[in-house]
Amino acid sequence: MRILVVAATEFEVERLKSEALRRGEDSRLKALDFELLITGVGMVATAFALGKHLQANKYDLAINLGIAGSFDRTIELGEIVEITQDTFAELGAEDGDAFLPIEQLGFGAGTFYPGGRLADLYHLFNNFNFKQVSAITVNTVHGDEISIKKVTQQLNPQVESMEGAAFFYACKQMNIPCLQIRAVSNYVKKRNRNNWQIGPAIKNLNTFAIEFLKMYA
């Protein structure tokens, strides 16, 4: 199986990259046919980089790895989740106090889905029984109480990122089976990096990625 691992930054997959490049007989990832694509942060960078890459390369599966902020307080910081629905939260038009999504405007879709869930596609439910959640993709991460309340009422998301829906969109256009796996680094509220758990989130994310890929080595 040929796998493409997609991340916005090297920082989010640094351990995975190091493991893949490490020489020695105990590095099982060296035997696996997978590539790592760093797209840059944001939906525009992700869509462009992924679309360009998939024009020239074919894969059996693409996986988007990254961190996310959570609106859902039942999700623990550092916990890994599987995104089963992702929406471009800002794609549409304002009509006074109302927001009209792109579907309502008649200009296409704003919500996208994976090519198949982790459990359904690859029978890994017993190994990776992650919580399945809905997400939004944004240009500006939320950190204001008014905007948080508004998007919660509008879309009721559980997590947010700056790339997820763009990843799903590009994979759909190229007909590539895809999954999006994220680790929660913080809760969505007024910005306070002192309360974030980026380190544990990235550690858990990379542990998952390495174990997932080793299953196909």
Q: How many DSSP-defined strands?
A: 10
Query: What is the alpha-carbon Rg in Å?
Result: 17 Å
Distance between the termini: 9 Å
Decide which structural class fits the backbone. alpha/beta
Helix content: 25-40%
Descriptive overview:
This protein is an alpha/beta fold and 217 residues long. It has one domain (3-214): Rossmann fold (3-Layer(aba) Sandwich). Helices cover 32% and strands 27% of the residues. It is built from 7 helices and 10 strands. It has a 5-stranded mixed beta barrel with strand order 3-9-8-4-10. α1 runs parallel beside α7 and α2 runs parallel beside α6. It starts with a strand and ends with a helix. The model has no long low-confidence stretch (mean pLDDT 89).
In summary, what is this structure?
This protein is an alpha/beta fold and 217 residues long.
Please give the structural blueprint.
Layout: E1 3-7, H1 14-21, E2 34-38, H2 43-56, E3 61-70, E4 80-88, E5 92-95, E6 98-101, H3 102-105, E7 111-112, H4 118-122, E8 131-137, H5 145-155, E9 159-161, H6 164-173, E10 178-187, H7 198-214
Parallel strand pairs: 1-2, 1-3, 3-10, 4-8, 8-9
Antiparallel strand pairs: 3-9, 4-7, 4-10, 5-6
Helix pairs in contact: 1-7, 2-6
